[in-house]
Amino acid sequence: MRGRSGAVTFDLKLNTMQREETASDSSRLEVYPPVHRLGVVGRWVRARLQTEILRGTPVLVRIQGLRSPWRNAVMQASSFLGEEEFYMLLVALVVWIVDAKLGRLMVQLMGICFYVTGFLKNTLCLPRPPSPPVTPLQRCQDWGLPSHHAVLNTNIPWFLWFYLDHHFSLSLPTKISVFVGIGLWSVSVMFSRMYLGVHSPADILTGGVVGCILLAGWLRAYERVDDYLSSSPSLLSLLGIVCIVVLLLSLHPDPYPVTIVFAETVCMTGVAVGFVVGQVLLTPPTGGRGLLEEAGQYSSLLTAVWCGLLRFLVGLVALVMLKALAERGAKILLQAVAHVAGVTTVCIKRKSEVSSERVHYSAKFVALNESKTGSEWNQNKLTWVWDRGPINLDIPVKFTSYTCMGVVAVAICPALFSLINI
User: Fold this and answer.
1) pLDDT at 213
2) Where are the domains of the chain?
3) DSSP string over 70-125
4) Is residue 226 scored above 80 in pLDDT?
5) I need a surface site. Which of 228, 335, 382, 409 has the fewest CB within 10 A?
6) Distance between CA atoms of residues 190 and 145, nearest Å
7) Do the beta carbons of residue 225 and residue 280 sit within 8 Å?
């Protein structure tokens, strides 16, 4: 009863705070969630989910009371283990050093996770936990539910576990150690997001459920996917895959106001497409091999370690340089094509129209039942869809350059390693 009373007291305080904010400040953040297009059902689903987000606020406040400088540092580090930057470094390590097939499959799974999570985030447009009373320790500029970190850390660590268990002959103590390590990795990342005040328990739980569904499907499909791509399908089939991805991106919601969600989805799916293109066009049927798969050719462990370190450093430098060249080349090429077609273009980097403070729930966070009108709404549609005025090439350039980045990682870098004999 005491816990229930505490929750009721918090709800009363939150309602009072909302009324005071509404009375004192007429400015508000207007959001049009695409889910509202479903009418009463869509509005009910979103309202229900938002209620569950707010219901977890007392839990976050109690966790917030545990903060200390050293715990903050640990949780920041744990959160980084779920960031895209960490996963890209991990993928590079796996593809070039450990097992090329595993690395390719991880990237393809990440592309699926990013697309589905971004689609749900931009469809629902649900806020992050209310601040105050929650004090976030990180700045976020996108919607809250489902948590990207929860989806990724339900998928990537546990896919890694299933793959190692299925394809490697691990001893029982090693299996137990890997299982415990992956479990700690996955759970610590999810808990860190609540500790840092940027996700509610509902965000994490929903992300975990979505992640489990995606992982279950991927575990049934990944062998067939890799076998098909390694069988050197025709160029027409490859073009069909790319067209399907572009079509899916064109269906991805990009609601008012614009956040970074869609741009991040484009970048990650671009990398995944690049891995597919590189595997099909520029690698042998085996799809390339990691250093550990070729361990027999090294005379000593020290030589293998040295070559592994060189592979990682040379590969990262090549990735950064060639990605920059690809970005510049894509911009020039697309501008030239647009000029020939008589289309006026600009290339302005898309930024979030929502500040990190405003994505957290407050009485100023208002979900509209109707979209912005005409020109206002069109300014926020996909940048390659025909619209009045100049077309922003930022998204097409991102997709092209990150696709090239994937090709470099899975095909060009292994060829470079072979050329310099590392």
Assistant:
1) 96
2) 2-419
3) HHHHHHHHHHHTTSHHHHHHHHHHIIIII-HHHHHHHHHHHHHHHHHHHHHHHHH-
4) yes
5) 228
6) 13
7) no
